[in-house]
Every structure is written in structure tokens, then in C-alpha cells.
Amino acid sequence: MSESTKPLASYGTIRPGRIVAWTILFLGGIVMMTPLLFMFSTSLKSAGHVYDLRLIPDQPTLANYIKVLSDGRFARWFVNSTLIATIVTLSCLFFDSLVAYTLAKFEFPGRRVVFLAILSTLMIPTEMLVIPWYLMASKLGWIDSYWGIMFPGLVTAFGVFLMKQFFETVPNDFLEAARVDGLNEFAIWWKVALPLVTPALSALAIFTFLGNWTAFFWPLIVTTDQTLYTLPVGLSSFAVEQSIQWELIMTGAALATIPTLAIFLFFQRYIVRGVMLAGVKG
Amino acid sequence: MTATRAPRSAGSGGVWGRLSISTKQIVWAWAFLVLPVLFFAVVRFYPTLEAFYLSVTDWDLLNEPRFVGLDNYRKLFADPLFWQVFRNTFAYLIFGTPIAIVLSFAIAYYLDRVTFLHGLIRALYFLPYLTTAAAMAWVWRWFYQPPPIGVINSILGSFGVPAQPFLRSVTQALPAIMVTAIWAHLGFQIIIFMAGLRAIPTSYYEAARIDGLGEGAILTRITIPLLKPTTVFLVVFSSIGFLRIFDQVYNMTSNDPGGPLNSTKPLVLMIYQTAFSSYQMGYAAAQTVVLFIILFSISMAQLWILRSR
Amino acid sequence: MKFATIARFSIRRPLLAAAMALGFLAHGSGGAQAVEIQYWQYVFDTRVQAMTELIKQFEAENPGITVKQVTFPYADYQTRIIAAKAAGRSPEVMQLFYGWLDTFIAGKLLQPLSKTAFKDEDIEKNFFAIVSAMKRDGQYYGLPTAVRSMALFYNKDMFQKAGLDPEKPPQTLNELVTAAKALAKRDSAGNFQQVGMALDIARQDHNWVREILLRQYGGESYSADGSKVAYNTEAGAKALEFYTSLQKVHRVGQEGFMDEGQAAFRAGLAGMVVDGTFRIASYKTIPSFKWGVAELPSNDGKRANFGSYFANGIGAAATGEKLAAAEKFLAFITSEKAMNVWLEKVGELPARRAVALTEANVKDPIYGPFIRGLEYAATPPMVDESAQRQVSIDMINSVLLKDTPIKDALSAAAVREQVILDKFKAK
User: Fold this and answer.
1) Could you give the C-alpha distances from B26 to A104, A110, A186, B20, in angstroms and in order?
2) Which one of A54, A211, C109, C421 is least enclosed by Cβ atoms within 10 Å?
3) Strands C139-140 and C135-136, how do they pair?
């Protein structure tokens, strides 16, 4: 989508203004990247070279990575984060789109109420719910468990709202045809409607995964056991306990950042398109 | 899975077969909805009510909550720290949002016209959005260090600019943290603006050019007005983000949370500290209700602006 | 063989045999289903390592008991304990700062130590007197493994380079300023390349000001019963003036330089730093320069120090075999043996006099100054350590960052802190 339409670039003989604009944009992009570049560069420096601020390390070393990874905590946090973000994402994809489909394509009493009720929860900030959630998690023994970290995000109003807009564009004829073929309603949703909204699904998947991967506030509150920390919470506690050894902190930060950057490099197109879709429709 | 089985087994009993199509639809719909609706009731609505209830109690984790009326709110509005935090929170919003919006629009506007290395430049701007705020806060914290280790100060130094205290200053610390939040979300806003720009039909521009409008006139008369829904969305999205800022502040000022003399402390950090460092849950709940009211008002303002289109 | 014995007994004395068999079985099952207790402390690398080592030793000596160590960042530590209590998941043994005791007792987090397992006269005879801060209404609520005092760490190599005698660290506050001036280095732009004195308000300097400098200038931080703030005096003003002048007037250091004072010292970029015993082990790993420890500089011949400690208490909910295991564990980690491990791994001073005051320790160039400091150390009563600390931090910051006049900063802090004390008393 982004590559196909270039409304204003069509009349482009190269003009000096264009070159200036391009250069400024490019330099701005480099500036945007400097924190990441310095993070990676410092993670490859030994303790003695940290305060030498050259971007290319003199004697690059993987010692910091070995040191940070050696006690196994980062690996554990990585597994925790991956598992939690994946499960929550799958749950959201399933339930959000099921609810959205129902609200978009079914006629039943209470439809409007349910939709407005779900939509209204968008107005309630997470921060307002954490104290009751914490109370709930304490009473039910969910503190320090994957479930405790995950439960608040298993269904999201944002996802319902986003998916509903896409399901509304699915022609009813398709669904009727499937009904005539004898498919039950669940199968119609699963086999007919869902495949028609895959771009929206991938957009929702990207947002949910990223949101859960970087989530900090709730996991910080609900976990006390280091082995159950997610990467951001683990990193934060790791950084504090390193008593300001920047090369190790930068290595930890790099380890937390590498996975999402890697995913981006592989799926750049889908991710940019997904963010556009979600942003425009959501 | 249970959702599919229930109606089908009813069907085998013969009752299902006799139902009208519209009744079947109702049964199916509620079968699909029962779990999620239960979820919203238990995990969203009930806790919301509970937050309101806790805000009028003195619950401190150790003793049973006791009803104290509006004491928590009185205490909050009489607390100079709250007003400082309130000012800080709105400072993030009032300066952060316009800067972020103008900057991201300008970049999107020009980036949209760039063909040479378009994908690369877009990626440069977009990548920070994919990073973890808690991790990058530590990178920024290092950037803001005084000499000899701070990256920014050493760059300033090479231009002969005196060293700046940044996070150790009551005036610079908040803008310093705000910059990191802008940085993290700029990529997202650029992408959304670009999507908005692409959605404007090319024919509008062509018509404008035929009418002899210059680039500036096209920008102010066509592009910006047509981008209004996108802009409103981003303004609200970004405002809510700034009002809820936490990760960066928590990690960048962990020595003295909320910065020297609370100069960077936002409402959410105050809530966190009240609830989870001082365990005054009732008082913290009252603070969350205030946050909710602020966010709610801002969202209502958005609807109002959208309607007046 | 045991079965043979039992079998033989069973013929002649069936009752006894049955009892023995039962006892044997009970013992056996006790061995199979080990009692697990939890020990909580905050995250501090060397302390966690020392405790890991102690747990290993304890488990080897007590096969029926396993101890799980759980740690949290210092900032969240108190809340975690209180939240765990609310959730009914309190640890059996927990570490607490002496200044938290009243909060913990009010919150019913702790149970008093049993008088049979921990005899008052033993505690009072063997431990340093500051342990009395763990006593309420005639009952002890915890015992420390180690006690801490403060001293001046200095970089010997840097002293040498600056033309100072590395074996003669500053003895008085005036000498401290002179030495710091000689050590500080700035570049042409006026930025510190190294500081004479690492300043770190949030770590230990607030204690230095409130509990040490204040006394050296003739003041007291709190009234004897701890109910009144007592530092809003001439002495308080002088103490605050001296500390803030290090940055503002003498310009020998800068708060925030290298982010943390200890980081600056570690990196060899700070000539001196005031810090506690608990830092010794971490500084011992410094490879690049020699450093020494001196008693804190005196003022007009007056010395002062701040003695404090983290004690170990037993959770209120522990009963039965868990309580027995917790008592065993507490006795173990406050034993002489444990204290020596702690001294070696963390550097904190043993809480038992006999272990601390050995000739070797007193003469030790590193431990010596701390132990001598402990003799004249004060341990003021506190009700809400973290809130009171924040008041001191803000007081110093307002002078440094906002140029608030000393007297105004002092009285503002005194008012704020008095509110904290009054609020606690009202409970």
C-alpha cells in the first residue's frame, strides 16, 4: 500500500529544495537512531572503554553479553515475555474478533448495549484498575504467576472496536452463501469471515504483541519473584542492581530491544501496514 | 469451543431445529459473547466500581477498609505535592503533544514525497517505536549524564556549549524526559500521518494545481483540513500517552523517584508510590479517580471537536 | 539394622516398639517432606551472595529444612512484604531496617522472638547495644547479622597524584575540604573530569548530614524519645551549610556526577566518598587503583557516626514446624559463624561484640575505622525511614538546586518531618 501510491512524487525532476529536504530528513533519521546505535556500540565495549564515546568500539567484545546472559535470568525473562505476549495476543485475536464479528453481523437484543458497554471501557485507564486487580490477584493467589500478568489483557475493547470496523465491510452475501452450504455460525466466522480480515488481524496481532512485550506498569506490580519477571521489569531491576555499570545496562537494554527489531526487519511491510490500518481505523 | 457445541447438541434434541432463524441467531450471538462479556464485567466493570469505592475508604492493605467519605479527595487537593504533580502531568501534555504532532506531521509530509531510500528513512524514524520504554529510558539516562560520561554533554562540549545538568535540574529534568517520550512515539505518529496523507485522493491535488494553487496553499487549504480526523486521533492518542507517562520517569530517576524535588513526577508515578511504596490504597484509588476524570474530559473534548467538523 | 532392632524389641516390648516405629516413621516422613521456609531481603549483590552461601551451609546442617531466598529492589521492598501479608503469603524470616520496626509491628507483620530460643540476657550480653532498637515492650522482634557504620573511602592513587600523602587521609572537616580541592580536576570548560568528593544525597549523604555532621556541630536530629524533630537549630544550619558548600562554594564535587557517588569512586573519578560498611565488598573488586578507609573527619575534635542495621525478624504467620525452622534459621544467621561469612562477603561488621572486636578486626586497615566509628555511633529512633529520608533529600536538594536559604530549607524540612512523626504517634 505504501509503495503503490506516490501522489506527489510523480512530478519529480530533481530540484535543490528536494535535496535539502532529503538531507534534513536523512540526518533527522540518523539522530532518531543515535540512542540505539550508542546502546549497541556500548554493549560491545569493555568496562574500561565505556566513557570513550566513539561510536565504533576500539576492541569490540561480546564479554558483556556473555556476562549478562551467564546467570540465565535474561533467558528466563525472555521466555516469560515471549510466552506472555504470545498467549495474550492469541487470546485477543480469538476473542476480540469473535466479539467484533458478533456485534457486526448478528441481530440480537442487547447488541447496542454490549457494544457501548465494551466501548466505554476504553475510557477507563488501566491505572484506575490496577489497585482492584492487585486486590483480586492477591485474594485469588495470582500474584507471581503468568496468569496474574496476563489476565487483564485477554480481551481488549480496542481490538473489538478495530475488528468490528473490518467485519462490517465483509459482504453479508458471503455469509449467507455459507449458511446455505450448511456451515454452522462458528464455522462461518472461522472459515469465511476471518480469512477476509487477515490484514486487520495482523494489525491487531502486532499491536497486542508489542503492547504486551513492552508492558511495564502491571507486570512490575504483580510480580515479586524474579523468575517470573518480564523483560522490561527484569531489565529495570537488573539495571538498578548493576550499580551503574553502563556497559552491562546497555547490554541488557540491547537484549530487550533486539527481538522486536529483528521481527521488524523480517516483517517490515506488514508491520508498517498494520500500524497504518490500526491507526486509521482504530 | 464450548460455544459451538452447546447449540449443536441442542439441535440434536430437536428443539434447536424448531427455532426460528432469528432466535437461532440470538442464541449463537450470546454463546459467542458469554465469555467475553463475563470477562468485561469481572475484569473491567467490577474493578472500576471497586476503584470508586476504595477511593472513599482508608484501606492500607493491613487493615480492613473503612468508609471515610471524601477525606481522601480533601487530603489530595490540600496536598501541595498533588498540585506539583498535576502541573508536571499537564506540562508533559501541553508541551509534548504539540511538539510531537508538528514534528511528526512535518516529517511525514516530506517523507511522503521522498522516493530515494524511502523505506530506509522511514525505518530510521519508525524503529524507536518498537523499543521498550523501560529499556530505552536507561539509554537516555546515560545520554543525559553530566561530563565526562554523558553523550549529549560531550557533544555540546565539542561546540563549546557549557555542560547542562539535565536530569539533575528542577527546570530541565521534565523536558529531558519529555523528549524521550516524544522520541519513542514519533515513528508511530509519522506512519499514521503518512497513512492519512495517502488517503487523500490525488484528484484533489490535481484539481488544485489546475486552479493554480501553490504548494503552500495546497498544504493549508487541502492537506491540513483533510487530515483533521487523523490529527484529532493523534492529538488525543498522544495526549493520553503523556497523561499516563510512567515507564520513562520511573526508570530515569530511580535514585530519587520523580526527579529532584519531584520536578518530573507525573500523576501515575504518584499513584504508584502512594499505592505500592506507601501502601495507602484508598488514597491512591482517589488519585486514580482524578486521573480518570482528567482522561475522560480530554476524550469528551475529542468527541466534541470531531462533531464540530 | 534399625528394623532388626525394632523387630527384636517388638517381641518383648510391643508398646515401646510401636512408639519407636512411629517415631522412626515420623522422622522419615519429616525427611522426605522437607519444611520449606522463605527468607526475604532486598537486592544488594554481595548481601544476596552471602545469604546464598549461608543458606547452603544451613541446609547442610539441617537436612529437614530448605530455605528459599526471595529478593526485591530496595525501593519496593517494604511494600512487597506488606502486600504479601495482605495476600497471606508472608515469609517466615524477613529482613527489616531497624527504622521500620514500628511500622512492621503496627502492621502485625512480625512476631516477638521466643524468650526460650533467644534469651534476653544472651542478646544483651553478646550483641552491640544498638540492638536494643529492636526491643518493644520488653520483647525483641529481631536480630541483626551485621551492623553498619560509616567512614570515608579515599583513592590512594589519586591522593598520590595530587601530591597528598596517601597514608594521611583528612582528619578534620577542614582538611577534608583542602584535600578535596586538591583532588578535583576540571577541564577548560569548567566541567569536572574528576571530583574531590563524590556527593550522593540519596544514598548515604543524607545520613552524613542529619546524623553525623549535625552532631559534630553540636546538634541532635531528634528528641530523646524520638517524638520531636530537633535539627532546626544553629547546629543544623551549620551542618547543612557545610555539606552544600562542598558543591556550591568549594566546588569539589557535584551531585549526580557519574550518576551515583559509588559509581564515581569505583571508576576512579572521585577522590573520596562517604559510604557504609556494606560497600566494602564491592570496592574490593576494584582492580585499577588502591584505596583506603578513614574514620569520618571530625569537627573541633568532635567525632560522630551513624550506626544502623538490618535485622532479621520472624513473620507473624509462622507457626508449628515452620516456626521451629524459622527460629533455627534465625539462630543460624545470627551466629558467630554466619557473621564471619557476612563480614568476609559483604564487609558489614558482625553484630556480636566478640566477633567484631577481635584484635585483627580492630587493627584491620579497612574494618578498623568502621569499628572505631561504631563506638561513638548514634542510632536515632525512626518511624518511617523512607519518608524521613525523602525529607532530608529534598531539604538538601532545595539548597543545591533552588538556592533556598539554609534556614528556610531546614525549617521546611523540620515541619514536614514533624508531621510524619506526629502521624505515627497518632496511630
Assistant:
1) 13, 10, 13, 10
2) A54
3) antiparallel
Q: Is A93 on the interface with B (CB under 8 A)?
A: no
Which portions of chain C are predicted below pLDDT 70? 1-33, 427
User: Is C289 within 8 Å of C280 (Cβ atoms)?
Assistant: no
Q: pLDDT (tens digit, 9 = 90+) per residue, C251-269? A: 999 999 999 999 999 989 9
The residue behind cell 457501548 is A116
DSSP string, B58-111: ---SSS---B-TTHHHHHHHH-HHHHHHHHHHHHHHHHHHHHHHHHHHHHHHHH
Instruction: Show residues of chain A in contact with C43, CB under 8 Å.
Output: 237, 240-241
Task: Judge: B146–C254 Cβ closer than 8 Å, yes or no.
Answer: yes
Domains and CATH numbers, chain A: 9-61 (no CATH), 70-281 (1.10.3720.10)
Q: Which residue is listed with cell 585499577?
A: C288
| Kind and range of the H or E run holding C239 | helix C234-248
Which residue in chain B is spatially nearest to A258 when comparing CA positions?
Answer: B131
Contacts of A240 in chain C (CB under 8 A): 43, 73, 75
CB contact under 8 A, C387 and B163: no
A264, amino acid identity: F
Distance CA B39, CA C407 (A): 57
For chain B, positions 54-73, list CB contacts with chain A under 8 A: 54
CB of C67 within 8 A of CB of C280?
A: no
What is the C-alpha to C-alpha distance for residues A175 and A184, in angstroms, rounded to an integer? 10
Three-state secondary structure call for residue B54:
helix
Helix (H, G, I), strand (E, B) or coil at B4: helix
Question: Are B199 and A39 an interchain contact pair (Cβ–Cβ within 8 Å)?
Answer: no
Q: Which of C425, C2, C400 is nearest to C209 (CA)?
A: C400
Burial C346-357 (b: 16+ CB within 10 A, else e): bbbbbbbeebbe
What is the bridge-based pairing of β-strands C377-378 and C150-155? unpaired
- With pLDDT > 70 as the criterion, what percentage of chain B qualifies? 94
Same domain assignment for residues B117 and B249: yes
Same domain, residue pair B165 and B132: yes
* ipTM of the prediction: 0.89
Identify the band that residue A42 occupies on the pLDDT scale cut at 50, 70 and 90.
very high
pLDDT in tens, A201-242: 998 998 899 999 999 999 999 988 888 999 999 999 888 877
Chain A residues closer than 8 Å to B218 by CB? none
Cα four-point dihedral sign C334, C338, C343, C348: negative
Residue C363: Cβ-neighbour burial (10 angstroms; 0-12, 13-18, 19+): exposed
Q: What is the largest CA-CA distance in chain A?
A: 74
CB contact under 8 A, B255 and C401: no
**Residue linked to cell 517466615:** C92
Domain topology for C150-306+383-426: D-Maltodextrin-Binding Protein; domain 2 (3.40.190)
CATH-assigned architecture of domain C35-148+309-363:
3-Layer(aba) Sandwich (3.40)
Residue A221 at interface with chain C, using a CB cutoff of 8 Å:
no
CA C264 to chain centre: 22
* Chain C residue numbers touching A225 (CB-CB < 8 A): 70
Domain with CATH 3.40.190.10 in chain C: 35-148+309-363, 150-306+383-426
Sign, CA torsion A236/B254/A225/A73 = positive
What distance, in Å, lies between the first and last C-alpha atoms of chain A? 18
Name all chains with 3 or more CB-CB pairs below 8 Å to chain A.
B, C
A183: contact with B, CB 8 A cutoff = no
Q: What is the number of H-type helices and E-type strands within chain A?
A: 14, 0
